[in-house]
Design brief:
291 residues; 2 domains
Length: 291
């Protein structure tokens, strides 16, 4: 991510609060990857970022750091008392999914609009400086369900410069394999649904997985098509965007992908990598605006 030179370094101290970090071995999902890139970008820019687990945050801790700006990522572990205390402090919410609904999934409801008795955490979202979302689709869901306007979309996930360089370097890999399905233990990632879709449509496929991110991308780059059947409204869907950057076709439910609401979604390969780089530059400046 490129940085806006209009702001000087060492002007801000932040407290970053989330449930898990990328360094937690069992947690390397999209949220953790996004957070890791944002934190490292802020630090490279000269910001001081204190990383704290949501479950360890207390009202006393918040009061002791009230002169700092708070960035709230996933916050399942954050106590109600701490959420209440934060509401008279300076904080932004970096929303990775849909923690404003009991179901965590707007797709269960017509037009992604849940009944009022399904809405939670409304005041926590309303009183933030901004709720920063990954896509227009996700942002619209937040605004419509909470009836708030302090919402912005950065229009992308966040990748490091090095990760995008690596994806670009293997994007022209010869595709000598047909279809793949990602073998995920997370039921919301639709492995069972994708397998069923392939079997019902007589599509031969391989199940692919790897705990090593680069090895996984190398494997994915060899396939012509990724079959991904989401079971919830994906805020963006990092997996699908990576597949498209690797010049893979994608069989999916586009209406459940936040990425499909973005203007760059029809691109692939090096054109998509370039578009994501440009979008990330704009994304970082949105964070700066509210910090």
């Amino acid at each position: 991510m490129e940085f806006d030179s209009r702001r000087s370094s060492n002007t801000l101290e932040c407290v970053f609060i989330c449930d898990f970090y990328k360094t937690d071995l069992s947690n390397k999902g999209g949220a953790e990857n996004n957070d890791s890139v944002l934190i490292s970008s802020l630090e490279k820019y000269g910001f001081s970022v204190e990383k704290v687990y949501s479950a360890k945050v207390t009202p006393a801790f918040i009061d002791a750091n009230q002169d700092k700006k708070f960035i709230i990522s996933n916050f399942v572990g954050l106590s109600e008392a701490s959420k209440q205390n934060l509401q008279n402090k300076h904080y932004i919410i970096y929303e990775h999914d849909h923690k404003y609904l009991k179901t965590r999934d707007p797709s269960r409801f017509t037009n992604f609009k849940a009944p009022k008795d399904q809405v939670i955490n409304r005041d926590f979202y309303k009183n933030s400086k901004c709720v920063i979302c990954l896509s227009d689709s996700q942002a619209n869901s937040v605004k419509n369900n909470l009836d708030i306007s302090n919402v912005e979309s950065i229009g992308c996930s966040l990748w490091s410069r090095e990760k995008l360089d690596f994806i670009l370097s293997i994007s022209e890999t010869k595709k000598d394999k047909e279809c793949c399905v990602v073998n995920s233990q997370n039921p919301t990632k639709g492995t069972a649904e994708a397998v069923q879709f392939c079997e019902q449509n007589n599509i031969l496929f391989d199940l692919v997985e790897s705990s090593d991110e680069k090895e996984f991308l190398r494997t994915l780059s060899k396939y012509k098509t990724l079959v991904f059947i989401p079971t919830v409204l994906e805020s963006l869907c990092r997996l699908v965007v990576e597949a498209k950057m690797l010049n893979c076709k994608v069989m999916t439910k586009a209406q459940l992908l936040g990425a499909s609401s973005e203007k760059w979604f029809n691109l692939s390969g090096k054109e998509l990598v370039a578009a994501i780089r440009a979008q990330q530059d704009s994304a970082f400046n949105i964070f700066l605006k509210y910090l």
